[in-house]
Amino acid sequence: MTGPVVVGLDGSPASVTAAWWAAREAADRRLPLLLLHSWTTQPLNVPVPQEALSKQRYGGQVLQRMEAELLHRHPDLTVTTELVSEPAAQALLDLGQTASLMVLGSRGHGSVAGFLLGSISLHVLGLARCPTVVVRTGDPTVPEGWQPPAEIRGDIVVGMQHNGPTIAPLLEFALTAAQLHGTRVLAVRALPVSSLVTHPHALTEPGDEAWQAEEHGRLAAELAPWREKFPDVELVPRVTRGAAAQVLLSASAHSRLTVVGRRRHPSHLAWKLGPVAHAALHHMPCPVAVVPHD
After folding, report:
1. For 4, which of 92, 128, 184, 197 is 20 to 30 Å away at the CA?
2. What's the total number of domains in the chain?
3. Who wins on pLDDT, 293 or 235?
4. Confidence (pLDDT) at 113
5. Pair 191, 209: CB distance under 8 Å
6. Number of neighbours of residue 173 by Cβ within 10 angstroms
7. Rounded to two decimals, what is the model's pTM?
8. Is residue 147 one of the residues assigned to a domain?
9. Residue 75: how many other CB atoms lie within 10 Å
10. Which of 177, 188, 171 has the alpha carbon at shortest distance from 256?
């Protein structure tokens, strides 16, 4: 896609971290960056009077300051700004119709690695038509200003719950990002503990090993066409027994990005994030991409 990378910017530390991550991603993908601020949806701690003119002035200053800082670091980046009166969630969803990628910020849980998502972020994540990445405030891998990243994480991890066409958008997104950043992709599938009872070869320890080897081979076969499509990217299958959310969290402990899926919904009045996506969004230490699929 050639649409812009869109980031919701409200002036909070979380949104600033998201803007820096989005700028680097847009520069690497050679895409324009669009900074959006809704002056009717501002943080509660904004130190300005509640009059509309003051809120618009504050929003304009937030956009101008961020644009200048990003262009100082990425002079070749095309940056545009939009100051809108629509509620933030609706404005983001409208832009998401043609965006290549959307980026949101999230407050952390303090000393506990994780995200704190508000209603706006959850609404956008549940309905966006494009992949949406959530970045935790203060993520040490995000170079803000002229500060280099404090650490470099490795793999891009993608959750492979099911086979079939639903996995195609997730793998396409993960492999494209890996090719861009020169890293490998770890494709993770969890084997539920309950299937130990029903699988004919999983009742003994050797049988358990054979069962996992069989499932590993099945996953490797599913990934074979993608290896041909992305020959320069190392694509590693991993099959682990356990709850899907916990398996994915363990695999992503040192990843640079985790990719999960979410079904598209026909109505803007009804949406739902699955339990694995919810767990990833609230507990991953790294940015999380939610990719919609049919």
Report:
1. 184
2. 2
3. 235
4. 40
5. no
6. 21
7. 0.87
8. no
9. 8
10. 177
**Residue 141 falls inside a structural domain:** no
**How far apart (Å, rounded) are the C-alpha atoms in residues 11 and 38?**
11
Q: In this structure, are residues 15 and 102 in contact, taking their beta carbons and an 8 Å threshold?
A: no
Token duo for residue 55: 């809120």
| Token pair 């339990």 in the structure block, residue | 275
Contacts of 70 (CB under 8 A, 6+ apart): 19, 20, 23, 33, 77, 79
Tokens at 230, concatenated: 């992305």
Tens digit of each residue's pLDDT (9 = 90 or more) over 95-132: 999 999 999 998 754 434 444 566 788 889 989 999 99
Residue whose entry in the numeric block shows the structure tokens 């990445």: 133
- Residue 233 host element (H or E): none
3-state secondary structure of 48: coil
Domain membership flag for residue 131:
yes
The Cα diameter of the chain in Å comes to 71
Q: What is the pLDDT of residues 228-256, one digit of tens each?
A: 999 999 999 999 989 998 999 999 888 99
- Tokens (6 digits) for 80: 């545009």
Residue 160 and residue 121 share a domain? no
Residues 178 and 72 placed together within one structural domain of the fold: no
Mean pLDDT for all residues in the chain: 84
DSSP 8-class letter at 166: G
Same domain, 127 and 92: yes
Exposure b/e, 96-130, CB count within 10 A at least 16 = b = beebbbbbbbbbbeeeeebbbbeebbbbbbbbbeb
Q: Which of 103, 136, 169 is the last residue of a domain?
A: 136
| Segment (H or E) for 290 | strand 288-293
Cα–Cα distance, 129 to 68 (Å, whole number): 29
Is 35:134 a contact under the CB 8 Å cutoff?
Answer: no
Domain hosting residue 186, numbered range: 156-293
Residue whose structure tokens are 């909070």? 12
- Token readout for 152 is 């470099």
> Could you tell me if 282 and 134 are in contact, meaning their C-beta atoms sit under 8 angstroms apart?
no
